[in-house]
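Query structure, 225 tokens:
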């Protein structure tokens, strides 16, 4: 719920009514969430707050998740750029344990803007989510015919879904904008003992990059020995 700060240095975290004291805290939350919500603006300079608020978030996406009563092992694991940027991932081709034998697990994704979606949970939001899922499935049927007839499980996620479950502002999939002009926050923060890891800091978004950020942070804490 809160990162505890006293005298310009971290003192631990508070979770509900429990306090865990520590001279070091590593935050994997987005930097905007970390500083503006978990730390609090009262512990930061005006210039730093303006810098964090001015960072542009990366794009997000809309995803459809399908469990199919159909064997798709004859298809490529990844089919990219279908009809203007829609991509298909047959997860069970990469990892057969993700679906029973003769079945398939599929993820479909396309770019999406957070502000295009109404408030989560409203009738308008649910209707838009359903219509987009149906439209994307129809596109996929141009490549995998009659896929809608073999759907056993179906779910979908919008940028607002990602924001809800990851606390990532705007449901950004790479945290901040990935352009070379973006200056990500340094992993050593202005609060002594508070570190950043993940897509918010160097070297950026992506699985390999966030792992590297964790290694850099751990080595610094351990003295790079």
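Result returned for the query:
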């Amino acid at each position: 719920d809160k990162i505890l700060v006293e005298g310009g240095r971290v003192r631990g975290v508070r979770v509900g009514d429990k306090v865990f004291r520590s001279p070091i805290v590593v935050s994997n939350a987005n930097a905007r969430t970390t500083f503006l919500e978990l730390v609090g603006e009262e512990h930061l300079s005006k210039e730093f707050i303006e810098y964090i608020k001015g960072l542009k978030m990366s794009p997000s996406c809309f995803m459809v998740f399908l469990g199919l009563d159909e064997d798709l092992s004859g298809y490529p694991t990844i089919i990219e750029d279908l009809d203007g940027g829609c991509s298909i991932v047959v997860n069970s081709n990469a990892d057969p344990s993700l679906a029973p034998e003769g079945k398939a697990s599929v993820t479909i994704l396309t770019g999406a803007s957070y502000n295009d979606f109404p408030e989560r949970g409203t009738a308008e939001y649910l209707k838009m989510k359903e219509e987009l899922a149906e439209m994307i499935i129809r596109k996929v049927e141009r490549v995998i015919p009659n896929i809608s007839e073999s759907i056993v499980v179906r779910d979908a996620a919008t940028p607002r879904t990602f924001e809800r479950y990851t606390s990532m502002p705007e449901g950004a999939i790479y945290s901040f904008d990935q352009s070379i002009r973006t200056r990500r926050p340094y992993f050593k923060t202005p609060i002594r003992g508070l570190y950043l890891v993940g897509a918010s800091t160097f070297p950026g978004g992506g699985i390999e990059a966030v792992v590297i950020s964790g290694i850099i942070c751990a080595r610094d804490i351990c003295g790079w020995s």
